[in-house]
Amino acid sequence: MLESLTGFVVVGLAIAVGYVIGRIDLLGEHARPVLARLTFFVLSPFLLFVVLAQADVRTLFSALLPVSAISAVAVIAVFVLIARFVWHRRLGEVMIGALSAGQVNSNNIGIPLSLYLLGSAAYPAPVILLQLLVFTPISMAVLEAATSGSASFGRAVWRAISNPIVIGSVLGTAVSVSGFDLPPIVFQPALLIANACVPILLISYGISLHGQRVLGASGRRRDIFLATGLKLIAMPLIAWAVAEFVFGLSQKDVLIVVVLAALPTAQNVFNYSQRYGVGETIARDTVFLTTIGCVPVLLLATILLG
After folding, report:
1. CA geometry: angle at 259 spanning 258 and 261, to 5°?
2. Closest-CA residue to 285 (of 265, 255, 261)
3. How many Å apart are CA 177 and CA 174, to the nearest integer?
4. What is the C-alpha to C-alpha distance for residues 104 and 26, in angstroms, rounded to an integer?
5. 217 conformational bin, left if phi > 0, alpha if psi -120 to 50, beta if neither
6. CA distances, 92 to each of 48, 103, 271 (Å)
7. Residues contacting residue 148 through CB under 8 Å, at least 6 positions apart
8. What is the rounded distance in angstroms from the CA atom of residue 75 to the CA atom of residue 287?
9. Cβ(83)–Cβ(93) below 8 Å
10. Are 17 and 206 within 8 A, CB to CB?
11. pTM for the whole thing?
12. How remote is the C-alpha of 306 from its chain's centroid?
């Protein structure tokens, strides 16, 4: 069971390093925006291309995909309904909060945890595919429209489709589906750049924690608690119910989808909030709370369903 905590130790150390860097002001006042832009426009597209290009097509389009989609869409819809129509939050904040509730950390926590907890690093691939090819274009279009002041939704959609993250995801999926093996002269340089994404993203997140107090912004505590509760409790329960009673999956597959649903909020959501300058407190605090809170949830799911 201690091996299953390896992913959290790796992530925690990188975040701690970032916090120290922020505390001693090693990189100066522009560190956060510079690292955020570097991650968003350069490193993330390379990482997503490499991950999806290496994914097994059979795993990408397995029964895990619809179960993960239903559970994610369900919690996203609940957050949107409450935040938008009950609390009357701005569209950009609603989008960041919804992603905080339904978009999981399938890469830097999901992959190592899948390896140590479930025995294979391939299981998060359908979730990665879902988030990058469906959720990301939609969320980018909404955030572009909400923050750019443009009245043209079509223009916002085009900017989202031409986003480097979406392009990298589409190209990686195309390579996987085609079955084409990239030559080392192409793949190895992409892998080199991709390997820099996760540590820099986590270090950037750690820097953002310095000088901030979790749940310090009283005006958005309800949003943070709602997103955290949906992410850690509602989403795994929905995934279990759908997998067990709707799709009739095997015991092993039920465990897989529950573990994937219980993963913490993706750090990419925080990166999006920095990029578009909206909902940063919601994303930052939800990432922090779900990263800590998912440990007992994952261990309990493994004990009950394993």
Report:
1. 65
2. 265
3. 5
4. 30
5. beta
6. 24, 16, 14
7. 156, 159
8. 16
9. yes
10. yes
11. 0.77
12. 24
Burial-class residue 65 by CB neighbours within 10 Å (0-12, 13-18, 19+): middle
Residue with tokens 């084409």: 180
**What are the structural domains of the chain?**
44-196+217-305 (1.20.1530)
Q: Identify whether the C-beta of residue 27 lies closer than 8 Å to the C-beta of residue 207.
A: yes
Rounded Cα distance, 99 and 103, in Å: 5
| Residue 256 and residue 64 in contact, taking contact as beta carbons nearer than 8 Å | yes
For 211, the token pair is: 């000088």
Joined tokens for residue 114: 């899948």
Report residue 56 as tokens: 């097994």
Per-residue pLDDT of the chain (306 residues; tens, 9 = 90+): 555 566 667 777 888 899 899 999 898 888 888 888 898 789 888 988 888 888 777 777 778 889 999 999 999 999 999 999 999 999 999 999 999 999 998 876 776 677 667 776 668 878 887 887 788 888 888 888 887 765 455 665 676 677 787 788 889 888 988 888 899 999 999 999 988 887 888 888 788 777 767 676 667 889 999 999 999 999 999 999 999 999 999 998 999 999 999 998 988 898 889 888 898 899 989 998 998 888 889 888 888 886
